[in-house]
Amino acid sequence: MITVKNGVFTITTANTSYVMHVREGKYIENMHYGRRITPYIDPDANGLIDPSAVIADEQTERALEEKYTNPYGNSVAAAGNNWCVTLDDMCLEMSNPGTGDYRSLPLVIEGPDGCMSTRFYYKDSLLYEGLYSEKERTGMPYAHGASNGTDRPWTLELIFEDVYEGERGKGLELRVIYTAFEDCDVITKRMVLINDTDVTYTIRDISSMMLDMQGRDYSVVTFDGLWTRERHIHTKKLESGIYETGSTNGTSSNFHNPFMMVIKDKATEDHGGCYGFNLIYSGNHRERIEVSEYGKTRILCGLNPFGLAYPLAPGDRFYTPEAMLTYSHKGMNGVSHNCHRFITDHVIPPYFRGRKRPVLINNWEATYFDFNRRKLINLAKVAAGLGVELFVLDDGWFGDRSNDTKALGDWFVNEEKLGGSLDSLVKAIKNEGLDFGIWIEPEMISEKSQLYEAHPDWAVKVAGKEIYTGRNQMILDYTRADVRDYIVDVICKLLGSADISYIKWDMNRPVTDAYSAGETVPGAFYHDYVLGLYDVMKRVTSAYPHVLFEGCSAGGNRFDLGILAYMPQIWTSDDTDPNERMYIQGGTSYGYPPSTMGAHVSASPNHQTLRETSLETRFNVAAMGVLGYELDLTRLSLIDRKIISKQISFYKENRDLLQNGMFSRVYESDNNTIWQVTDERKEHAIALLYKRTAEPNQSYDILYAADLDEDALYRVRVRNIKVKVKTFGNLINQISPVYIKEDGIVQALIGKAYAMDGETEEYTVSGATLMYAGIRLAGRFIGTGLNEGTRVMGDYSSRLYSIDKIVH
Ligand code: DGJ
Predict the structure, then answer these.
(1) Would the CB of 590 count as within 6 Å of ligand 1?
(2) Which residue has the higher pLDDT, 666 or 784?
(3) Residues 112-123, mean pLDDT to the nearest whole number
(4) Cβ count within 10 A of residue 351
(5) What pTM was computed for the model?
(6) Residue in 251, 360, 365, 395 to alter for ligand 1 test, most ligand atoms within 8 A of Cβ
């Protein structure tokens, strides 16, 4: 609910309040954003709260507003020359250069005379049911209303006018726009700049949102990394001064994800006040936090000003990306739950909300570029036999693409390599019982390609300057309408040429020279590229609304809400090593739900780390996302096929829970991690227990749970796993009647056909016991013997536990 009353603006969600009011007739002071507060209750009203008032009563306003009692030392007085008021010490919703607020500012624009001072003062407000993006075509993805269409969000616009006397006259307007997504405790904010003057302004810096908060006792939590180690969690105590993160490589980047949290100092996973911020945007972004000496904290999120000099001509509007804000008093898991719900209900395309995602086989790590029709069909045949549902043909099916030095842009089928048309291959794969999906990298162009020969000016480069490539390729200039039309046509023709139900949309290199041979000026390039990308994505996905698109950018280089608005899942990382995935998927889970994370079982030793892990652990970790397989299934041993077939059955039986359940990080120690997904009715849950390294002579693990009914009874069962004979090395001779040489033929033969059953464990306990005491699981193997109850847990080992309510 949003209320506007007597100059007080209150946005209320299920558990949070955002309260502002007009100050000194022209500023907007933020009085509170955080846990929901209730209004003053009139003693004569018999304790009744007027729900329409929510918070906008005089008593509460008087209590919350900041008192300016004494003149400030050498600070600048707010206009009106009341020296007791300085903007440098006010929690503001909008602040201007040249007014004595020396903190980081949300908007810096340059007039034709070079002047950068502005006076955007509050003028008016607008409140309506619905979304700003429904009345204005912003060209950008946005958070939509609930998929069932009932729960319409409300929007508030605060209108600020640049009050300028003199020859330039009036006509610059800034709108700060708020939408309340009450069900998931999310508020979105964005700024829109409108130029109704007759001169061009240049935007130097523009944020989507600014949030000023009282206090300085916060830490910032960010998710940072590189290729194959994306979104690792980092926590830093905020101190006086500025903390800044973001990206400048043209994408949201694997360096620093746009999602971050600002948490109160004593907050933990489950307790304490935590804020979460994200941007519905896929390009350069910046998050800046400034702790002022007056004891206030300012947070800015939005476009990165790097390389930005965006011209705003008379009559133009500049729409910033929509920023997401959430608050939870239930710790970081609380923030995650809000973000997960917001993404599934309001960000991903509604068609895919709760829709089951297929278990896929991707041929990339199975074959790389070295495939032909026979290999693909054999892979599909085996995959189908194991229960896989979708076959994905990755890179290498087009043009002269036999390696990664060439042919990007030549999106015509290499029929020689595929042994016929794409349509005939798709039919053959479908004949094996699988749906068909295909990889494409439509934002790229290789120097060695027919497309580049025909259109050298379509590549992003500065004519006359040495070209810097990444993975031997250049970027196609999506700021140009002719390029975009060409690519939309290419993708639509591809989709129309065969029965394709899935597309993996890759993007393997970041931007370097931000320069177009078309009309876009360099200072607008980064943003216009992203707008161009959204234009293409929107046209393609709305032409094929039922095709499942999976975003990818060398793995997770572009894991953000902008991509998710078109593509409900993203390839989380090129790193499929389960031990690394615990960091990557774990970090990603703070801001994004399991249904957005592509997670594959690949070969061991792993192709990125050479680490050896068991097939069961590779599955257990991948099962916490959208499951796929990416290895040569045709070379599997008999026992591995059996194991995979059981894994897929387990996943399918629990798919809704694993893909759409509420995800929590339950427990973390140096060595053990527990995650859990739980259904809405708290009747079914699955917990993953992961152990990083074996611990000698310390045999017990405790299984803790979360999110259950305290008083209900639950049956807890371990998913039965197989333990390979090889695990025991030459210890196997302690029980074998004949000597088995380690790594010898006999061991290999036994290992291919046989594996031991892992432990079976089952308990029936109350939810409270599970959550607050935990189950002391059977002892682990510690070198003193092995029996049916022993849990064999070496390095990188794991178990999945099904937790089911006993309903009488
Ligand atoms: C990078 C992706 O992340 C991989 O999964 C694979 O599709 C390769 N590109 C293909 O070139």
Answers:
(1) no
(2) 666
(3) 94
(4) 12
(5) 0.96
(6) 395
Q: Ligand 1: distance of its center to the CA of 385 in Å?
A: 26
Taking the centre of ligand 1 as the mean of its atom positions, its distance from the CA of residue 266, in whole angstroms, is 41
Phi, psi of 621 (to 5 degrees): -75, -40
Catalytic residue among 506, 528, 640, 701: 506
Q: What is the pLDDT of residues 662-702, one digit of tens each?
A: 999 999 999 999 999 999 999 999 999 999 999 888 878 99
Return the biggest CA–CA distance within the chain: 100
Inter-residue contact 580 to 228 (CB < 8 Å): yes
Taking 60 as the threshold, does the pLDDT of residue 168 lie above it? no
Q: Is 574 in the pocket of ligand 1 (CB under 6 A)?
A: yes
- Please list, in sequence order, all residues whose beta carbon lies within 8 angstroms of the beta carbon of residue 449, skipping any fewer than 6 positions away: 399, 406, 407, 408, 409, 410
Q: How far is the CA of 372 from the centre of ligand 1 (A)?
A: 18
Confidence at 615, pLDDT banded by 50, 70, 90: very high
CA nearest neighbour of 189 among 164, 230, 153, 234: 153
> Is-catalytic flag, 506?
yes
* Cα of 363 from ligand 1 centre, angstroms: 10
Q: Using CA atoms, how far apart are residues 313 and 311, in angstroms rounded to an integer?
A: 6
Give residue 699's pLDDT: 74
Backbone angle region of 599, left / alpha / beta, with phi > 0 → left and psi within -120 to 50 → alpha: beta
Q: Which of 394, 503, 570 best tests ligand 1's pocket when mutated (most atoms within 8 Å of CB)?
A: 394
Q: Is residue 637 within 8 Å of residue 753, measured between CB atoms?
A: yes
Instruction: With cut-offs at 50, 70 and 90, classify the pLDDT of residue 536.
Output: very high
Task: Annotate 131-182 with DSSP letters as a single string.
Answer: -HHHHS--SS------TTS-S--EEEEEEEEE---STT-S-EEEEEEEEEEG
> How many Å lie between the centroid of ligand 1 and the Cα of residue 506?
7
pLDDT, residue 742, reads 80
Can you tell me which residue has the tokens 């280089």?
A: 557
Does ligand 1 come within 6 angstroms of the Cβ of 552? Answer: yes
Catalytically annotated residue among 88, 162, 435, 574: 574
> Across residues 273-298, what is the average pLDDT?
98
Is any ligand 1 atom within 6 A of the Cβ of residue 365?
no
d(CA 781, CA 700): 10
User: Is 630 a pocket residue for ligand 1 (Cβ < 6 Å)?
Assistant: no
**Of all atoms in ligand 1, which is nearest to the CA of residue 439?**
7
Query: Is 369 in a helix, a strand, or coil?
Result: coil
Catalytic annotation on 701? no
Task: Note the pLDDT of residue 505.
Answer: 98
Q: Give residue 663's identity as a one-letter amino acid code.
A: F
Q: Taking a C-beta distance cutoff of 8 angstroms, is the pair 35, 273 a contact? A: yes
Length of the chain counted residue by residue: 808
Backbone Cα Rg of the chain = 29
624 CB within 6 A, ligand 1: no
Q: Cα-flanking dihedrals φ and ψ of residue 177, to 5°?
A: -115, 130
Q: CB neighbours (10 Å) of residue 430?
A: 16
Element (DSSP H or E) covering residue 588: helix 578-589
Phi, psi of 587 (to 5 degrees): -65, -45
